[in-house]
């Protein structure tokens, strides 16, 4: 593990304010690809993500080392004038300021874009929130769960016999963070052209809504309301989870040519010419019937047999992976999708690598999530040029 950044964002600096996931995941993405990320936390208490997670080692969160990797953590009270002046000094030397407070919070702290853009006209402010910076709901508290519901995702997840479900991850937060990162880099390109920064306003509900395909267009045009459909997509067949002798197996062969290859693999080539199944539309009309037919064949095979047969036939298929399968998989290993790294509190650990891959300037994980205020001296002395006496005075006042 090297502390030297290798990614395409090397040379850029981002100030991360806010906490939990919707903003900090954006900071993680920026840091993964070389940006210097300076994370600001309150002097008395750190980001709750230092404690969150479903399990711990040595009393430490296993989520924090990932979410805060490659970041430099400093303590600073942004609620007081002295702290606000320090943030302005940081903004003078930075390219991005990232925040995910409730809209209006930075304005109350006299750190709105109108103020910071005077300090640095090129600053790009990435703002991640539940409902966005404008509109009648902008003032409301908004977590990922609410944004996923409002954006349409929750309603369509799950089995039709049960209430709306959720994904097993905070997908609304990470989508909003990803769109915030994308928007920040678009704004960076524009700054190269104009010299001016701008605000990137990424709302959780809109980030989710953006992924909802033709949901609104279908309702507006035909009155169709998409419902929960369990493990299938209506009219897309065959594409489902099927039984094997020793487990479950996913087969996706909904394209005409791929379905023909599946039929050959099943030793029933005549099915691809059968008018009941020959076209995408026909298969969609007989989706349940077709799934039963395929399941009758699949359950005569083991998972390994299915994998070999369908791989040889060129039919997209595979196992339903959990962490154990990921750790043992040859493809994960060959592409170094999972890395080994040492955290000073947890010890040796495994985590996902940086994605996507670059041929010339790949991202890299340089260190895991730092301690609370670990980089105070580096940032305050080396970057801002504060003296030991000044730093001591700020500490005595509870500012840093």
Provide a descriptive summary of the structure in words.
Strand 12 and strand 13 (347-352) form a beta hairpin. The chain has helices at residues 24-32, 64-67, 81-92, 105-108, 113-119, 144-150, 153-156, 171-194, 204-209, 215-222, 256-265, 280-285, 287-298, 303-313, 323-328, 330-334, 376-383, 388-396, and strands spanning 13-16, 36-41, 56-57, 60-61, 71-75, 96-99, 124-129, 199-203, 239-244, 247-252, 317-318, 338-343, 347-352. The protein has 400 residues and is of the alpha/beta class. The protein folds into two domains: 13-211 and 341-396, Crotonobetainyl-coa:carnitine coa-transferase, domain 1 (Rossmann fold, 3-Layer(aba) Sandwich); 239-320, formyl-coa transferase, domain 3. Helix content is 38%, strand content 15%. It has 18 helices and 13 strands. It starts with 12 loop residues before the first strand and ends with a helix. It is elongated and about 85 Å long.
